[in-house]
Design a protein that fits this description.
It contains 7 helices and 11 strands. By secondary structure, it is α/β, with parallel strands linked by helices. It has a 6-stranded parallel beta sheet with strand order 6-11-10-7-8-9. The radius of gyration is 20 Å and the shape is elongated. The structure holds NADP nicotinamide-adenine-dinucleotide phosphate.
Length: about 250
């Protein structure tokens, strides 16, 4: 190895891709890695690298952190719907002239046999449900408030942590679990609750795809919430291997 300076990387985490990336970076002598979780869920999956928790305090707070921690490069591997964090990362890295990479999985595409109702946001998703629907909400806790006005709809909601007392939630059944990776399990769940519509965000990724395949086989319409518009920030790479390549190139250039 011709160089000795380690590249100090901040990985903004909260996704499976971030976990895979930190797994691959851990123990590599070229890198010193710190990951960051928002602290949004009570027991996030432990990562293979030192991990800090909680917000930075907006773009200015993140810029300050980058300086104090001597970060050479940021990899924004947050969820496609974590638009605020991505915007903050873009602003802070711009301020500090710190290189920023974005790792964001591809979105799902409708395929033959799918019936998707495309909507731009969760408010429109709530409006798109027909009277008397029995909807399965596979959206985040923070988005449930958009559905509280639909008293004519029966909701089944899946979430990892229960909603906080001040978080608005439509009346209905709450299922505490991660998405299931088995299409059969998702199909049985939808059938058991007599679901007529699936509502989901276009998160992409293999883990959440089983519910779409289950909806297809049951011929359930899917209300698909589009990803938020990307503002500032780099063009995303789609695979962990691409992010690793960018980091390697940066290490070589130092
Ligand atoms: P968000 O709306 O974009 O961000 C809200 C605030 O949370 C940010 O301004 C930041 O606080 C803090 N934050 C977000 N990600 C952070 C991170 N990795 N490390 C430190 N602080 C972070 O994000 P969100 O939609 O609430 O998502 C929160 C976390 O959950 C993200 O890490 C995301 O990857 C993960 N997640 C989100 C979704 C989703 O659908 N939104 C789904 C699965 C996982 P400050 O401004 O104080 O820095």
């Amino acid at each position: 190895m011709p160089q000795t300076k380690r590249l100090k990387i901040l990985v903004l985490a909260g996704t499976r891709e971030a976990r895979e990336l930190t797994d691959r970076l851990a123990g590599d002598p070229r890198y010193e890695v710190v990951a960051s979780y928002a602290g949004a869920i009570a027991q996030p999956t432990p990562l293979a690298v030192p991990t800090r928790m909680g917000g930075f305090g907006g773009p200015a707070g993140l810029a300050q952190y980058l300086q104090a921690a001597g970060i050479d490069v940021v990899v924004d591997a947050t969820h496609p719907f974590a638009a605020r964090m991505s915007a903050n990362a873009a602003a802070a890295c711009d301020l500090r002239r710190t290189p920023l990479y974005r790792l964001e999985r591809e979105g799902w595409q409708a395929e033959p046999g799918d019936t998707w109702i495309d909507v731009p946001d969760v408010r429109r998703a709530a409006e798109a449900l027909p009277d008397g629907a029995r909807a399965f909400l596979a959206v985040g806790r923070k988005e449930l408030g958009a559905f509280t006005g639909r008293e004519d709809v029966t909701f089944t909601m899946r979430m990892i942590d229960p909603p906080a007392p001040d978080e608005p939630v439509p009346p209905g059944e709450i299922i505490r679990s991660f998405p299931q990776e088995s299409v059969d399990a998702e199909r049985s769940l939808f059938a058991a609750h007599d679901i007529s519509h699936l509502v989901t965000k276009n998160s992409g990724g293999a883990a959440g795809r089983a519910k779409l395949l289950a909806a297809r086989t049951l011929k359930l319409p899917v209300v698909m919430v589009a990803r938020p518009a990307t503002g500032a920030g780099p063009r995303p790479v789609r695979r962990v291997s691409d992010a690793l390549r960018l980091l390697e190139e940066l290490w070589c250039r130092q």
